[in-house]
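Blackboard transcription, Thursday session:
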Amino acid sequence: MKKILVVGLGLIGGSLAMALQGFEDFEVVGAVRSQATHDKALAKHAADRLTFDPAAELPGADVVVLCQDPAGITAFLRDNRDRFKPGSLIWDVCGVKTAVMAAAKCLPEGVDFIGCHPMAGKEVSGIANAEAGLFRNTHFIVTPGPNATQEHLDLLRRMADWCRFGDVIVTTPERHDQMIAYTSQLMHVIAVSVCADEGLFSCKGFEGGSFRDCTRVAALDPAMWTQLFTLNAPALCRVVEELEGRLRAYREAIQSGDRETLSAMLASASERKKRIDLERARGDDVRPSF
Amino acid sequence: MKKILVVGLGLIGGSLAMALQGFEDFEVVGAVRSQATHDKALAKHAADRLTFDPAAELPGADVVVLCQDPAGITAFLRDNRDRFKPGSLIWDVCGVKTAVMAAAKCLPEGVDFIGCHPMAGKEVSGIANAEAGLFRNTHFIVTPGPNATQEHLDLLRRMADWCRFGDVIVTTPERHDQMIAYTSQLMHVIAVSVCADEGLFSCKGFEGGSFRDCTRVAALDPAMWTQLFTLNAPALCRVVEELEGRLRAYREAIQSGDRETLSAMLASASERKKRIDLERARGDDVRPSF
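(Written on the board underneath:)
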């Protein structure tokens, strides 16, 4: 029997360990650090087996899935670089890819690191909220290094299918980080910026679906997102600044009383939104094969 | 049998006409302008009876619910001021309240206008998307004028309960407009600003739940929202400008590389979001009785 070692059973790692169970002839081993996580993971059978000692499992692990935060992944790669099994596949789930791919350069030849980013999540964290169905119909983004083997790319694709991801997107770490600055990190900056408004606690009774949706992700893990934002600072700052400019343009149009200009701006944005929703519904998403 | 006349069977009016059916001893009459809306409303039995001539119904209507856009409501009040039944209750569903309450000053004494705002909606519009369950667990905001009768406030409360609103919030038109600038209008300005990004169509495959949630309301009706934004320009421009400032503060913290400051900002916003979610879950929402 082969072995998948999932390191870190938080929301994503725990959900992956659950989703990966039963995949081909692999045993899924979950590595935890705290007794509390161990007990919760055991209670919900988050993995076939649990361990407090991932280093001891590495020499026998055919696949290693790193589910810590960026600093945790970097440290783990550095501290264990000589323990990975030759020919094994290592992948991670981190929301930034350039920094993680750079950190993986420390691995010896023959250990294949492929950067991954499951575009799934919840506004709550931890093994308690993990579930096997978390990845259903979400994007699985893959950033292979120059030496990624076809065998490992095929294996990764089969794992993604088994976990019920909606599609697999292959791209470069640099393009991933640029895209994600806009589609994910900016949404988190918006949510925390809205929640920093001093009127937050007096607005109860006046909030509707749009407010709940826009602020949903504000209840984020500060330590993790400090890392994610910092590691992608240039791309993220660019899209934040662009958004500031577009908000200012709307404010000026509203202030000016020029209804024609405002209406044209709203019509354009509304059309763009409808068009992209239509394209998505039609399934125009590229689903590249490896 | 008494009569409720719902004027304008779009998403909100159509849903209200559906939800109000069966309320006490009232007949629900829906007023439409186009044959297309008429036919769709008839097919889904959106009202007990349909009419193309609301003016003819007014003298016999005990309750009139105005579900047009702000300009439509203002024109309807002005054109029909002498047709309303003495002692009747008129309410509207408009997302701004100061301007509508001012327009209602044209009504003769003895016709009771109470401003209302059901905090419900969808990203799609029209009778085709109307449903009786739209208001379940949403806020029903009420801004009574100085001469609102207790009898009418009680009647409104019973209608809100019948439509399954989660609670009824009584406030002034001015406070409503201030609050709504932040909790609703700002969310729409954010959504259209995000969708105006030139990268929108190249980001497919990289969007997750936070992107879909934040941009959901961007597919708005430009004519309607031009009115809503313009009629609440000072309050809205203030909160947009404040958001620009907070986005800039995040950008500067990310750019500076000062992780401690960034982490503290994220921790504060995240705590605030968790706290308001907890308060909401505990049901701390004020539910004032009339």
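Lecturer's comment: Residues 285-290 of chain B have pLDDT under 50 and may be disordered.
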